[in-house]
Amino acid sequence: SQQGEEDPQALSIQEGENATMNCSYKTSINNLQWYRQNSGRGLVHLILIRSNEREKHSGRLRVTLDTSKKSSSLLITASRAADTASYFCATVNAGGTSYGKLTFGQGTILTVHP
Amino acid sequence: GAVVSQHPSRVICKSGTSVKIECRSLDFQATTMFWYRQFPKQSLMLMATSNEGSKATYEQGVEKDKFLINHASLTLSTLTVTSAHPEDSSFYICSAVDWTYSNQPQHFGDGTRLSIL
Q: A residues 43-72 near B, CB within 8 Å?
């Protein structure tokens, strides 16, 4: 079952603008991960943020995690046309029989216009 | 970064055919591999978890006799779709992870587009 809810479902921006995607989840987590998927391809791992972390950066990417609100956000700064893709958040639950398995959100389709 | 190779990338075959998809971790040993199914414009649905040398664990609603998984080594897992029918047409993606270390991301293959005529 899909735990995560992502919004927006689709985002269309101009090159150079920032893109923010949000993800909410329902259960306690061990970590939360963001992945990118180009059309017809596999997923590429972007960032992993642990449950005891609040913010993480990687290049033009910034991820925040608020475990009290069970939410995370992915910010892409100075977007490029090549950033056009679907972005998924995925959570790893804390313990239990589902430990280690990724539960994916529905994804955000980002389109960056040149 | 870690590389996972999935083969073939596309399969078109007749109804009733069995199709085997391979997933290989090229530069690391995968303690666990996962198989997902993705319908158009939807998210990934986990089908099964595969640990090297043991039987796969299937998610609820996934027929284990239909989707045979073998994880014979730390670098190779295979998914066989037996007697495939048009409703099995989908995008299948594998991922691999080395859980020797905690908090490791999954590394994904490029997927296999399966079309059953």
A: 43-45, 48, 50
pLDDT of residue A1: 37
Cα–Cα distance for residue pair A67/B44, rounded to 1 Å: 23
The string of DSSP codes covering B47-89 is EEEEETTS--EEPTT--TTTEEEEEEETTEEEEEETT--GGG-
State whether the Cα torsion A105-B37-B103-A41 is positive or negative.
Answer: negative
Structure tokens at B16: 């009733």
Chain B hits for A96, Cβ within 8 Å: none
Q: What gap in Å lies between CA B71 and CA B6, rounded to an integer?
A: 14
Q: Evaluate if residue A112 carries a pLDDT over 90.
A: yes
For range A92-113, the mean pLDDT: 82
B21 pLDDT more than 50: yes
Give the other-Cβ count within 10 Å of A23's Cβ.
28
Q: Which of A33, A41, A104 sits opposite B105 (nearest CB)?
A: A33
Q: What is the DSSP letter of A82?
A: G
Nearest to B78 by CA among B112, B106, B44: B112
**What's the mean pLDDT in B76-86?**
96
Structure token pair of residue B46: 């986990």
